[in-house]
């Protein structure tokens, strides 16, 4: 009996000694905690627990330290152990609730805070934390509805508010990152996902978001790698599976279209780009390229209006897409819609001030200026590359067609219109038949500034100089007469059964 009593005393002494040492470690831990040296505080609280593993307050203190070190899951385990050892340990319940809330489990957090209020109904901290938990639950519901409606800005807003209380919740962060990607805010989305992966390299959701950002930035090969890695970590990740399938299909279809275009098979390329555009409407950057590619094909197929429409869709998806502006501007130039072409080239030059873009803008501005003058080529009905002989033949035909004598029996209104056209034909020939004037006209100079008021010249003088003889006075035109001045008088009289109703001056062969 004496021996047993002696042994019991020895155990009590050891426990007392252990308790004292544990308390000493706890006090040292408290000192380091006050200094904000949380790593050392953690070490001493761990020593205290090792010495006395049944003390709830030691676990509570270490949980507080782990929370300061942002190790919330470990802190949750310590706080749960604390309340298991002592269900009346109010601080243990409070810290457990805060850990749950930080990790995004607002329902569990709310239960813990209500337990604190059972122990201490007037606890103001617990009352505030209940409100915080309720707010997180409300933001979760709002975010869920926003995501269903594709209101991604609303989701980002809700997650930002929720993360103020649930700062360690990866689920909230991933949802925010995914919505940032859907909004085209790729650097922000990448940053959020990367932060998660630094703490948890196996997080399938974060790997999926990284891949999604790359996919939407048209880095499809790298995106596929992240989707495959996400599926390794989470084989049932349906979003990663669908994105991986879309990425591979989009890449293949686009490459097929590019090959058809390079081979000159424009119809096939047009169809392939059209099919690619149906794969994923959310992939804005790739779809912008596809629209621009299809616009390029459309211009090759002479579908200029369709090409302009496709380029317009491309720049609506990506306002910084220079190539689409350039392609649309060229289409406008082809349609001689110079105002629109100048606007596009100005946009390009403001974005990228290169010599090439400056040249394109100046050329469009020149063509716009030229388009606002009389188009003498159109007046004569010849191409801008017409030869001297073609210009002479065109003048001969148009001058005879619109000569006032030919329309002497027409109404006053028709006579006035034909006289105007006759005059314009003379103006056109005056400029285009003179190499120097033609050169200045082609370069965009205003001919009226060089030659005075061209409206003052006499078109009949041009006619007389060209045809020779008595000029307009020697020509009497009637309806349905011969239009060709190089037909002889006898042939014309015979053809129209006219004897002395008009005379036609024979055109000198040397003029042709």
TrEMBL record:
Keywords: Acetylation, Chaperone, Cytoplasm, Cytoskeleton, Nucleus, Phosphoprotein, Repeat, TPR repeat
Major localization listed first in the record, in broad terms: cytoplasm
TPR repeat start and end residues: 22-55, 90-123, 204-237, 250-283, 288-321, 322-355
A family per Pfam: DnaJ
GO cellular component, one term: cytoskeleton
All copies of domain J, residue ranges: 375-445
Record's function text: Acts as a co-chaperone regulating the molecular chaperones HSP70 and HSP90 in folding of steroid receptors, such as the glucocorticoid receptor and the progesterone receptor. Proposed to act as a recycling chaperone by facilitating the return of chaperone substrates to early stages of chaperoning if further folding is required. In vitro, induces ATP-independent dissociation of HSP90 but not of HSP70 from the chaperone-substrate complexes. Recruits NR1I3 to the cytoplasm.
Name of the protein in its database record: DnaJ homolog subfamily C member 7
């Amino acid at each position: 009996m004496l021996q047993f009593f002696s042994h019991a005393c020895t155990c009590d002494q050891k426990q007392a000694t252990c308790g004292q040492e544990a308390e000493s470690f706890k006090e040292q831990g408290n000192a380091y905690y006050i200094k904000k040296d949380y790593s050392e505080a953690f070490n001493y609280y761990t020593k205290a627990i090792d010495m006395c593993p049944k003390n709830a307050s030691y676990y509570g203190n270490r949980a507080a330290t782990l929370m300061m070190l942002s190790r919330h899951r470990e802190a949750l385990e310590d706080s749960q152990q604390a309340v298991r050892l002592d269900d009346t340990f109010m601080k243990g319940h409070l810290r457990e609730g805060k850990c749950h809330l930080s990790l995004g489990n607002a329902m569990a957090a709310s239960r813990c805070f209500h337990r604190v209020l059972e122990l201490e109904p007037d606890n103001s901290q617990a009352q505030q934390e209940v409100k915080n938990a309720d707010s997180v639950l409300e933001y979760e519901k709002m975010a869920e509805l926003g995501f269903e409606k594709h209101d991604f800005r609303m989701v980002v807003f809700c997650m930002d508010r929720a993360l103020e209380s649930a700062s360690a919740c990866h689920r909230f962060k991933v949802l925010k990152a995914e919505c940032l990607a859907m909004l085209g805010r790729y650097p922000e989305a990448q940053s959020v996902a990367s932060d998660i992966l630094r703490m948890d390299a196996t997080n399938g959701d974060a790997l999926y978001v990284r891949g999604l950002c790359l996919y939407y930035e048209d880095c499809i090969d790298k995106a596929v790698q992240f989707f495959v890695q996400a599926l390794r970590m989470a084989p049932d990740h349906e979003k990663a599976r669908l994105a991986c399938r879309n990425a591979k299909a989009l890449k293949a279809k686009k490459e097929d279209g590019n090959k058809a275009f390079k081979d000159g098979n424009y119809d096939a390329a047009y169809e392939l780009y059209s099919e690619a555009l149906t794969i994923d409407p959310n992939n804005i950057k790739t779809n912008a390229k596809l629209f621009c590619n299809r616009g390029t094909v459309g211009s090759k197929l002479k579908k200029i209006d369709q090409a302009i429409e496709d380029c317009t869709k491309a720049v609506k998806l990506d306002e910084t897409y220079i190539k689409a502006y350039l392609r649309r501007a060229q289409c406008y130039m082809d349609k001689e819609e110079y105002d629109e072409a100048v606007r596009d080239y100005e946009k390009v030059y403001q974005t990228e001030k290169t010599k090439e873009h400056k040249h394109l803008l100046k050329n469009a501005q020149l063509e716009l200026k030229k388009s606002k003058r009389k188009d003498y080529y159109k007046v004569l009905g010849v191409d801008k590359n017409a030869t001297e002989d073609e210009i002479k033949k065109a003048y001969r035909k148009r001058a005879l067609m619109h000569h006032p004598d030919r329309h002497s029996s027409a109404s006053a209104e028709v006579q006035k219109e034909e006289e105007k056209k006759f005059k314009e034909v003379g103006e056109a020939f005056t400029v285009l038949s003179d190499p120097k004037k033609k050169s200045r006209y082609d370069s965009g100079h205003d001919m009226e500034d060089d030659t005075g008021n061209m409206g003052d010249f006499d078109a009949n003088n041009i006619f007389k100089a060209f045809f020779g003889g008595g000029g307009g006075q020697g020509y009497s035109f009637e309806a349905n007469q011969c239009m060709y001045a190089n037909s002889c008088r006898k042939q014309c009289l015979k053809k129209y059964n006219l004897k002395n109703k008009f005379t036609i001056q024979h055109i000198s062969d040397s003029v042709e």
